[in-house]
Amino acid sequence: MRGLIAAAALGLLPALAAAAPAAGGFKIPIAVKKLPNGLTVVVSEDHSAPTFGISTAFGVGFRLEPKGRTGFAHLFEHMMFEGTPVAPKGTLTRVIEGGGGVLNGSTRNDYTNYIASAPVSALDAILWLEADRMKALDFSDKNLKNQQEVVKEEIRVNVKNRPYGLFFWTDLVGKAYDKWENNHDGYGSFDDLDAANIKDVEGFFQSYYGPNNAVIGIVGDVTPDEVFAKVEKYFGALPARQVPARADVTEGMNSAERTLGQSDALARVPAVAVGYKVPMKIGKDYVALVVLGDVLLNGDASRLYQTLVKGKELMLQVQGGLNFPFESPWRNAGPTLFSYFGLYKPGTDVKAVVDAAQAEVAKIQSAGVPAVELARVKNKMRADYYSGIELPINRADTIALAQLLLGDANAVNTIPADIETVTSADLQRVAAKYLTAGNRTVVDRKPAAPEAKKE
User: Fold this and answer.
1) Which CATH number fits domain 30-235: 3.20.20.210, 3.40.50.2000, 3.30.830.10, 2.60.40.1120?
2) Of 66, 193, 291, 329, which shows the fewest CB atoms inside 10 Å?
3) pTM of the predicted model, to two decimals?
4) Is 256 helix (H, G, I), strand (E, B) or coil?
5) pLDDT tens across 274-292, in order?
């Protein structure tokens, strides 16, 4: 699972510096085709280098994994790298990395994606390999056992043996949400992971990894017609599969604050995670909340950093935003949290921290955001956005997920303009509607008391 985790816990999520074009001044070329078997292909030409990026995204993630099998979607992501009856384990990696390319995969709430970048001369080989693993995998007890242990080791490294673990994600959603699809631990418990068997894996593959539940995005030194022909050649014979109906994951906002206290044997200072439920998909309010997240939490100039870290000196660091700690607020197809996480000073009451943060929200609720501050935030957001899609591999992933989650790859071209339309009144409205004490969940994690020494 890439993207999250270790850096997020210590406040090391970098923002790449880039000069953003004027709003509406840059458009990513987009061409879309849907094959008869339901596979959707999105292509964007970029002849700046003889390379390409590819993302194969499937409409399944944490929210759709089987009950009693927490962490199963993530486990299955690993299984996709175990080879096929035709191309044994390691073949895909050798083809891509042997030509100087890179590859990875990740699982999130609403999708699982597999990304790669390579010289354009490897396009046919990689498409063949992607089609081959969409057709069939090497399902064996040996491969399953191996990847069960790999995922369990990730949990040990990223959760059990790391100060604070991922409580600002897993424990926060577990307290904030009521429906199992939204509140369970996507990393999974050891018992659930060990309980998975080959029949489970085969069934999951047949249910969610068919072409009609997938989008392929390709960006690079190619033309749409060329890519469409190649994808038809390699994927066209794969049959569509019956995809299970999506569970109803909708939840309204909470009406009373929820709190949870925890202890952490590895922590040296206390930490707090606070989340507000945001029940809707991407729309006008959602975009305003993304901007509000940057006003409050993006960087040293943000309001919560300036007030809680530098001003009142209640916290040691703070970060967050909409859909935190995942890498982008624009990759979401269901309810999420507007949240923040940070370490606070020993001896400080957690209530003082949360109240100080809420007071900053109240200022926006009553007075909005000055035009100069809002313009600065928007400029930084647009710079970060364009920087994030600079590399073909990232752009391919972005257009594939926009098509999969929003039904429109061209949405990647409207985001900068959508950000620009957000007004101070919009920020007042969404702050007052969603960032309320009643809709708030607070998880307070304190260092565990040292064990008494035995005589």
Assistant:
1) 3.30.830.10
2) 66
3) 0.92
4) coil
5) 999 998 777 899 999 999 9
